[in-house]
Each structure stands twice: as C-alpha cells, then as structure tokens.
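Batch 3, record 17
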Amino acid sequence: MLVWERPEPPSRPAPSPLSRERIVRAAIDLADRDGLDAVSLRKVAAALDAGPMRLYGYLSTKEELLDLMVDEVYGEIVPSGSAGPAGPSGDDWRAALTELARRTREAALRHEWFADLLGSRPRLGPNALAYLEASLACLGDTAVGTVVRVVSTVNAYVLGAVRREVTELRAERATGMDEQAYQAARGPYLARMLATGRYPAVARFVEGEDVDPDFDEGLEYVLDGVAPLVSGGR
Amino acid sequence: MLVWERPEPPSRPAPSPLSRERIVRAAIDLADRDGLDAVSLRKVAAALDAGPMRLYGYLSTKEELLDLMVDEVYGEIVPSGSAGPAGPSGDDWRAALTELARRTREAALRHEWFADLLGSRPRLGPNALAYLEASLACLGDTAVGTVVRVVSTVNAYVLGAVRREVTELRAERATGMDEQAYQAARGPYLARMLATGRYPAVARFVEGEDVDPDFDEGLEYVLDGVAPLVSGGR
DNA sequence: CTTCCTTCGATACAGTGTATTGAGAAATAC
DNA sequence: GTATTTCTCAATACACTGTATCGAAGGAAG
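Prediction for the assembled complex:
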C-alpha cells in the first residue's frame, strides 16, 4: 500500500505532536543543510525530539520518507493556482513548458539532493501528479500522442541538465568553491591525461574559453526540436 | 589524489592475486545481479575470498570503487577503436551521436545501477574521458562553442531519458513484471486520484492508449533542435 | 640467522534501518 | 467507580554498513 493511501495515525496530544508534514520538513531541512546522506531516521527523529521508532507510525520504511520528500519538492515546483489548462495550444506552450522547467531547476538548486532522487523512483504522489498534470496541460488539447512525446522529451532533458548542473556545482564546491583551486587540484592529472594525446578534442575544449552550457539555451534547442510536432499536428 | 593517479600495490603472489580490475569486476557482477545496494566492501571482498580490509590497498574509499565501476562501464560504451575523429562535420555527426547515445542506453540497460550513478559524480576516469572525447569528436572540427552546446544538450537528454527508462523498468518489475498486475496494483490508487478531477490531463493520458515514449524518437527531436547550430555555423 | 619493513587479517567502533518487546496510557465494559 | 482491553510509544536488540587501529606473519636485506 502506498504512503499516500495510508491515513496518518491520529495525533495524540502527546509530548510533541508529530505529523507526516513535520517529519518530512525536518528531513528536508536536514538534507538541505548536510546532504542526503545525513538523512537518517535517527537524526530526523532526534530533530523532532522523538525516538527513531516513533516515525514508523507515519512511515513504514525510509524509502517512503524519501518519496514524501520528493513529492514535497514537486509541490514547490508546480504553481499552486495553475490547475486549469493553459490556452488551447496557442504558441504559449513553449512559455509554459519553459516556466515549468525553470521552476524545476530552481527547486533542484534549492534542494540539491532533489537532483539525485529526481527520476529515480516512480512519482505517484499528489504533487508529482500535479506536476505531471501541469506538464501535460501546457499543451492544451493537442493530441495525446503528441503531448506525451513532447513532454517526455523535454522532461528527459530537464532531468539530465539539472543533474549535471548540480553535480558540477558540488564538484566545484568540493575543492573549496574556488575556480582557481579547482583547476589547480584537477589540473595536473588532467594535464597529464591530455598530454598523452589520446584526447585531442577534449584538449581543444579545455584550452578554449570555457563556455559552460546554459540550461535555458539547451532547453530552447529541445523545444525547437519538438516544435514541429505540436504545430504540425500529427 | 585521484584513484587513477595512484599505482596499484604490487601483486604479491599471495593466496589470491588481487587487482583493481578483479575488484571492480566483482563489484559490477554483484551490482548487476543484486542491485547497487548489495555492493558492500564486505561482499565484494568475500566474492574474492579476501577480508574487507584487503581492498583498502587498492581503494581508499567506497566512493572510489563506485567511480571505478562507472568508468568501467564508460569503457564498454565507447567503441574501442574510435579514437580518431570522425569525418569533418559532414552530416554524419547525427549518426555518430546517435550511435553513442544508443550504446549508452544499452550499457545502462545491461547495468541498471549505471543509470543511478550516471551524471552523479564528476567523470575524469580514462574511459570517461574517452567517452567525452568520442562525444566531442562526433562533430569533427566544428567551432568549440558549438560543439559544447550540442554535446551537452544531447548528453542531458540521454542522461534523463535513460534514467527514466530504467526507473520505469524497475517499477514494472517490482510488481512482478506483469503489466496487468502493475495496473492492478497501482490502479485503485491512481483511479481514486484521477476521480478527484484534479488531474484531467493525466486522466486523458492514462485512458488513452499508452504510448510509452521512445528513446530514439526523442533523440531525433533533440538532434533536430541542435541541427541548425552545427549546419548554420554558430 | 637476525632485523626490518611491508602487507594482511582480526578486532573494534560508530552509525545505519528495522523487528521485537514490554511498559504505560487511553478507551471501553461493567 | 473500578477492571479490562487495546493501542501507542520508547527501549532494546540485531544484522549490517564503512572504515581506523593494531598485532602478527612473511618476504627482503644485512
């Protein structure tokens, strides 16, 4: 039985009133501050002045906690008032999808762990469904086959781009958030590898000015790619 | 100091000759069979008839083992003989990128855990560099700015699409690899959610024939999107 | 043969997710 | 009102994780 089907245990007016909401929020705070690895049932429970086993009334497994965390962030992404379908497939489907993608990226930058979990588990929570709903609704009343093609392609890009961006961000910070230090740390090794001559294209790319890829720009290309699908019918 | 910089300890002709190669292969076999969570230093060591601490001569942390595993799969992806740059930006850059994307996907289907790790850690291993090299080389001598735009966009799509596909595959298998059983399990919950009327677009999508999104098709769209960049020159 | 230095395995520790169990309180029955 | 049942919670326990420490064994150098 899925988490979202099970009712919460009635909140006893016991010492500290607990709830899924509070548990999830504590877990998210922990993950935001100290990373996903720091999220243990013991620490989450401790943050709420409770024993670890207390949580098992609200969750039946740690996986479920992660599911709830992910769903919570989906809730941050989807604009709360946008349940209604957008304009009937005008040309603003691009703007709508772009907006959603941007919000997804921003949420992932706020909650870096989200990028690790995104797409790694089936999303059936209410907010994940709302997210899916919002995605599909961007295309108005376009044919369902077209909609799924467009949305899944764009979503795949967003997922991958966000993941890459967060990873790079972490890597930079790992060496002391100094770009110079980063080059200095990875430099010797990379230089030696490139000196082997086995990676000429990489060498050319490293020596050139570093144009780090832009999220919005890549998104434009992807949207360009699927645009004929939606305007051209099919 | 990175793993790839450190030499292996000289292989004593001790009871069982160990090597990074053997360790990584054992770990990969374990991950393929029982999932990434089953990869523990103890189990890997046991598979090689060694104590857990023995591995610390070859690795200094479990993270490094994961890095080596990822790099090994990169080695499976990149065609071994394709170090030379492809044709000078003809029109076969599409074919080359497609080939590489397909091979990436196939590797992820062979090693599902690869999808979980892909893009989650900086890739600087020799095979990862070769992969990057092969990606960049697909575009021949196109301007470096264009190359990075194209490759990073395509890679983002591949990463996201592969991840989604593997996740769905796992979800289906979790209920007993029966599509009917899957619908039956998730059905009641989904039906109830859809009955709330809050997800009309999702409902339309679920009721319609389920066109699961195709990897190659989405890739085509993305390539279409970046095509003007490479043919039109920057 | 003795000495030294490397390498290995055992032990140990802090931390994890979770099953079990026993105490205590709330709710019900009389 | 008291007695009994039921439910909730916290403590304990277990198997497991990654890794530090340390003592012993074994090959190399003198």
